[in-house]
Please model this.
Amino acid sequence: MSARQPARGALSRILDSIVESGRAILKGRRDASDRFASVPELMAMRCRELVDHRGEASGLALAREILDVYENLSGEGRDAFFDMLHRDFSTDPSLVLAAAERYGTDRDFNALEALRRAIESPCQKLFRRLNMAPGGTSLLVAMRGHLLTRLYANPQLSAIESDLRHLLIAWFNRGFLDLQRINWDASARVLEKIIEYEAVHEINGWDDLRNRLNQDRRLFAFFHPAMPYDPIIFVEIALGQGSASSIAPLIQTDRPELEAASQDTATFYSISNCHKGLKGISFGNFLIKQVAADLSAEMPGIKRFETLSPVPGFRGWLECTLASNAEAHVLKDELLAVQEILPQDGSLETTDDALRSDVLKLCAHYLIEEKQAGFPLDPVARFHLGNGASLDFIHWRADTSDLGMKRSLGIMVNYLYEDAQIEKNHETYFAEGRVVASNGVRKLARV
Amino acid sequence: MSARQPARGALSRILDSIVESGRAILKGRRDASDRFASVPELMAMRCRELVDHRGEASGLALAREILDVYENLSGEGRDAFFDMLHRDFSTDPSLVLAAAERYGTDRDFNALEALRRAIESPCQKLFRRLNMAPGGTSLLVAMRGHLLTRLYANPQLSAIESDLRHLLIAWFNRGFLDLQRINWDASARVLEKIIEYEAVHEINGWDDLRNRLNQDRRLFAFFHPAMPYDPIIFVEIALGQGSASSIAPLIQTDRPELEAASQDTATFYSISNCHKGLKGISFGNFLIKQVAADLSAEMPGIKRFETLSPVPGFRGWLECTLASNAEAHVLKDELLAVQEILPQDGSLETTDDALRSDVLKLCAHYLIEEKQAGFPLDPVARFHLGNGASLDFIHWRADTSDLGMKRSLGIMVNYLYEDAQIEKNHETYFAEGRVVASNGVRKLARV
Amino acid sequence: MSARQPARGALSRILDSIVESGRAILKGRRDASDRFASVPELMAMRCRELVDHRGEASGLALAREILDVYENLSGEGRDAFFDMLHRDFSTDPSLVLAAAERYGTDRDFNALEALRRAIESPCQKLFRRLNMAPGGTSLLVAMRGHLLTRLYANPQLSAIESDLRHLLIAWFNRGFLDLQRINWDASARVLEKIIEYEAVHEINGWDDLRNRLNQDRRLFAFFHPAMPYDPIIFVEIALGQGSASSIAPLIQTDRPELEAASQDTATFYSISNCHKGLKGISFGNFLIKQVAADLSAEMPGIKRFETLSPVPGFRGWLECTLASNAEAHVLKDELLAVQEILPQDGSLETTDDALRSDVLKLCAHYLIEEKQAGFPLDPVARFHLGNGASLDFIHWRADTSDLGMKRSLGIMVNYLYEDAQIEKNHETYFAEGRVVASNGVRKLARV
Amino acid sequence: MSARQPARGALSRILDSIVESGRAILKGRRDASDRFASVPELMAMRCRELVDHRGEASGLALAREILDVYENLSGEGRDAFFDMLHRDFSTDPSLVLAAAERYGTDRDFNALEALRRAIESPCQKLFRRLNMAPGGTSLLVAMRGHLLTRLYANPQLSAIESDLRHLLIAWFNRGFLDLQRINWDASARVLEKIIEYEAVHEINGWDDLRNRLNQDRRLFAFFHPAMPYDPIIFVEIALGQGSASSIAPLIQTDRPELEAASQDTATFYSISNCHKGLKGISFGNFLIKQVAADLSAEMPGIKRFETLSPVPGFRGWLECTLASNAEAHVLKDELLAVQEILPQDGSLETTDDALRSDVLKLCAHYLIEEKQAGFPLDPVARFHLGNGASLDFIHWRADTSDLGMKRSLGIMVNYLYEDAQIEKNHETYFAEGRVVASNGVRKLARV
Model:
């Protein structure tokens, strides 16, 4: 009998049997004291055992046991677990100081290695061993997600988080990722994740998903070999004729289908990072370029690669500017005009042509001129411009959804990926902090 | 048309096209100075560019370019390359010292992170980026192999080697490895590697390989996802009736085939580590246990899991002991008897029964009693006993090949893997340094 | 880039390109007369061309063209198409008669071959060639489905249907079918078909499907290589403890999950034939036995293999018997008791214990004694008993759905598949027409 | 553990277990008479049982048993088996006659169906059931191969052979075949078959095979789903610059490799049909065109698709013509010149320019003018010209191997596949029997 399953499944089965036999061993070994230990005490004992232990079978069983308990912890349970890690598995400052001192004296390789070892916390070893158990990678990614949400209130966890981040950076090196096209033939397990993870323009169930996987749509995802059914990041693309100026026609379910021969533009309308635990371990720029290369090869008729992106920081910036001192701003007139209408008609539905022009000017200004530490304020702009794209168009009332109005005042923009310009744009951006924009947009932004 | 190729192949194609487009960019950017640079100068420039660079396409192209040049370097070229890495991409001691000092003062997370960053050499970043290019992982493994052969003469390269080792330890975490059974259905590309890598009992071409993949034989290998056609380590197994006492019947090509129902013993007769560059990143213990678990599930009739292993340090130890002072040894009589015959008949073919008993006694003594730092001298003994196996049998004239005589005086031994004893043996071994052996072998060793 | 697609997809692409190039050729060849032809005339011309033609590329293009037009025909269009096939592509009786005459005279191999050729209609050749185009097999299966619905009103189409049936019998030889376990990892395209095809206990969307694919459920399907995303027949199984006595607990979505170790019974609760066009080309018996063998190997704890099946002919038989002459029947008393209550309370909800016993007796009698041409009246009974199962239990109010009440008066039965008895039961059934039943059921049936 | 095996393997395992359980049943059923039966008697009993039997498990076991015995039969054993099939499982002429008579009277569908059934021999049913067992298809293909070699001496087996051929034609419909590119990544089991089957230019072991699978070579094969490791037909292609004029440079192992960008010509230099048992069930024409379409898509630089083919009938025709009456031939002078030299120097090594021109003229004449039943005498010419290729070049001393000299006097020719001309050439060839040839060749042939 053949199974529509990846080979990995079979490996897990064997690992499971090793884990199982290890469990029996662990059971035999444990004494009565276990029975009176609390969950945090038990976790501490198990983690210590795993770090000290050498036996393979019981090592895997231990790892799986720790992961199983972790998986079922409540929020408080996780707090206690992280506190325990911090308390019992952190780097020992006295060891670091001693090693640093020795290095100061010896300055040789051995002293440097000793310093390196002293800095590496026992927690790293623990994480490495947890990763060996089936499903370990996946759970460690989730664990970092949990850690990140606690950092603000528990800055002492930074060291643990840093240990885990360094491992994940090594493990998720781009050389190990696999780009896959996802269509309706894909596994339901994967597609279910796509529905769950879509962060930008929600997918309403299986029929809507099917619509996003039609002949005139593309969905590409990066996968890591240890998580074959769980994408890392994915991008959704609409193939159409000419540039896209609003989101609704791209995601409506009953759109007319354009025949392949007429498609000349690929619009990247949604990029979703799937795991909070991989925050800061970026693959997005690589994904867009790799997908563009793939589409070019498959469909030579596609000449334009663009995004249709929100301007998520625009409204916040606008309101903040209005609140501080609109009069002092170079775009004083435009700001004052907007100040009048915005509180009454947040949807800007009644906006006349003049005001529309004011808002677009402000948006162009915001995207090109408003910076922090030399780079644009807007996070989406930073991402695409940093990738080497240029700012090509600003569209009025392009996303009138609640979220679209709330963050971007309904505005969306096209960032353009031109193969021949990408590297140059990228360097201009990083060398001079200058935003490469089309003439039209630059004209709008000109005061 | 369908292809019998793994999905990875397709990914590489796209990466290749990105690399290609990056090449064009690089070409345009390079100026005349390039033409006058030597290869080592060019490699230094390229590596610097890769570490400093952010552009994806040209980054991949750069990485591939460096790897391509490296692949074609002569021995001297590699020397120069490693010297350049050492010179230009090592950790800067002054930065480490400054960071250590700051940590001494602040003792907080940020200071520790800064110290960690100061210790991490630019070389690590270089290796990470090289790994992103197609084929990068494979070449970095080879590069560490080259480094290791130079360490003795060039101890200053230790830091570079250590950087690479740490990355490989992270990347080759067991959680990422895939166990595969290799049989005659496997890809010729993989089988060719098996022929090439078999280190213990040479495979003489394709017919011999086929023989090793018969119904009564098994071959299992670990693979890493980034090297889908290149095994990491593999083990060869003979299924038979009763314990194996010599190697010849196991590898002869015209042996009679035993029907599956009569097979009760799995003899692991060869374990080959495939890459020098993965030295010290051990998977062997894991492999044996995982394979035993898999075989148990597939063939419940297999009750005994043993090895048939050489004693590679025996003859060296024997000659060394004879040369020093045989008289002072607890096995004086046996040593003197052997001393007489060994120089005349190195093959021990004419050995009479008495002498045979002397040699076996010496071997049992060597395996059980002769230790260094608390553990057995013999490396194969250390490996299996450390895994939790016990020393079960010592066989006379079990491998009369040149290599077998030269290293082990023709002796081979069975190490026994008993599921129920493995953990206990393992702990006995590491806690007390005691060799767990059968009564028969212990009796032999008794003076 | 790798794709989660079967290799077949790639083949289709190449075939599509051949088809495309063939289309251009066909276009060039066609003259003005085409423009004035009606669809049926055009189809007749195209089919004639395909049967007479030898060119590969244009042959494939022709086949695909015919299939494309067929796919979009209305009911009347299909009527016209089948009439055309009957008129233009039927066996020529005069050729058959001449060949038969010759065979009567010559009685040799050549004459027999000639007779065989004379009998084989041009339609067979047409169907064979249509099958060569991508998607051909699938459409020919659908075509037979359409033919079967027309046979009653259009008996002259029997010859065409017979031609197609003979081809499908050859093509769907069991040796070519692939048994696959379907779980949540399977392709959405396949799962969508499962939802569509489930004929016995409707699947209400994706969440319900997921429920049917849980750890304690199994779904196995047969696939043909030419229809890799479209199952031929599938069976649904519930793993539980002890025999199942009603359908609701098996398909409810929020059932408690039994751990694997406690599961001892596999209940086949639904078998769905997916294609009307494969009617009479049976795989069901093979499927059940193959799945039982597979489950036994995977889960040795499963000791009992049973069905939970409707008695779809029971109510019809009962009402018919009541209508004719209940008094004359051997179960007169029971029939009269039922006659009283049935018209008022078709759901039998108010039925007291006595009446319940009457109905069960009648059902046992119906299943064991009521026959047609020597075999049971009930079609589901015929299927399982013919497979070698025995009739084990009759359950009261086991399926109170509308359909369950309407056809089976809510009764369901267990047919038992006992490995050791299957062949004997099978032979008893076919040799003597005797229904093998448990003591309990036989006692019920005893008048 | 994952396996590099196709899913089919797993199916076979289950089928094997069904077969195994069936065997036990069969064993129990068989009585003492078995022990005294001869092999042919036993085979006759088993085949009868299989045709009459309905039980699935024992049916599969029976089928496998018959196939196992068949596989081990000697030549005489096969003779006896085929005689038994002919005697016991042939069409019954009296049934055919009766059915034919009834059809003569009734002339309706039922009578036609009855006639059809009467013609279908019990052997067909036997073959269909044998095909259901694992490995059945493969063995039936081999069986037809055995039958074909016996036909000449045993014409009475024609009916059996015809039954099997009809089934194989249905089963190997092109719609079911899968085109695969074979390279060094392919399974050793498949590659071993390629070495075995190569019929035109022998492959000398694994190194030579590897050479044929280099970057500048292609090998494509058709596979049937029931024989996933055993190709049906394959074609070998050399990619080069310009047309190929002799075979040696194409198959030499140490040739210089041309970079991909310079390759403009694909030369099909070898086509091998792998199974005698599929004789007359042609796929070659389809293969060439499908491969050409695939190569065009992959490598747009390839502009010319040609073969380098032998002229296997040429020397035979020449010697035959010389033997009969050279004087009467239109090419009298050329024939006489050749007649003088051929018996002394069969290798034509000493041939002067004049004679060379004579031989080429004779060959051009042979290929274009010498026909049987309206089509060229030469079988290879018939194949490619019938496919729509044109005769483009005739090369002197292009294959000086023994076989090349013996059959083709060392001459090889290029047949050219031009996408735009194929259909027209094909029709010209079949409508008028005219050989489409280049000006150069036509000039040569002109008397």
Notes: Residues 1-13 of chain D have pLDDT under 50 and may be disordered. Chain D touches chain C through 68 residues (CB under 8 Å). Residues 8-29 of chain D form the longest helix (22 residues).
